[in-house]
Amino acid sequence: MIETGRDIDAAIIGALGAVAPEVRPDALDPDRPFRDQIELDSVDFLGFVLGLEKRLSLKVPELDYPQLSTLGGCRVYLRTRMDS
User: Fold this and answer.
1) Residue 2's pLDDT is what?
2) What CA–CA distance (Å, rounded) separates 79 from 20?
3) Model pLDDT, residue 3
4) Residues 70/31, Cβ–Cβ less than 8 Å
5) Is residue 63 within 8 Å of residue 22, measured between CB atoms?
6) Is the model's pTM score more than 0.85?
7) In principle, which of 17, 18, 55, 64 could form an S-S bond with 11, CB 3.0–4.6 Å?
8) Maximum separation of any 2 CA atoms in the chain, in Å
9) pLDDT tens track of the chain, all 84 residues?
């Protein structure tokens, strides 16, 4: 069960690592799009979103995908979704 921001961060990093194993979480700028920081094409991004859904047991509507394009955006979006 996801209970804290740390749990959400772990889910984000786990989902990113599954599609881009070269990612160094400590080097990610939370406000810069993932695509500008790591090699993440549209198929990888979809895999990332699906990984988040599985790890967090939630469904992300396709219209919300842009909110997941940065680490900071993921944190805000997922905290909001987990609190509701």
Assistant:
1) 53
2) 23
3) 58
4) yes
5) no
6) yes
7) 55
8) 33
9) 455 778 899 999 999 999 999 999 899 999 999 999 998 999 999 999 999 999 999 999 999 999 999 999 999 999 998 876
For the chain, state the CA radius of gyration: 12
What is the spatial distance between Cα 52 and Cα 54, in angstroms, rounded to a whole number?
Answer: 5
Contact 37, 29 (CB under 8 A): yes
Task: Provide DSSP, 13-78.
Answer: HHHHHHH-TT--GGG--TTS-HHHHS---HHHHHHHHHHHHHHHT----GGGGGGGSSHHHHHHHH
- How would you class 10 by CB atoms within 10 Å of its CB: exposed for 0-12, middle for 13-18, buried for 19 or more? middle
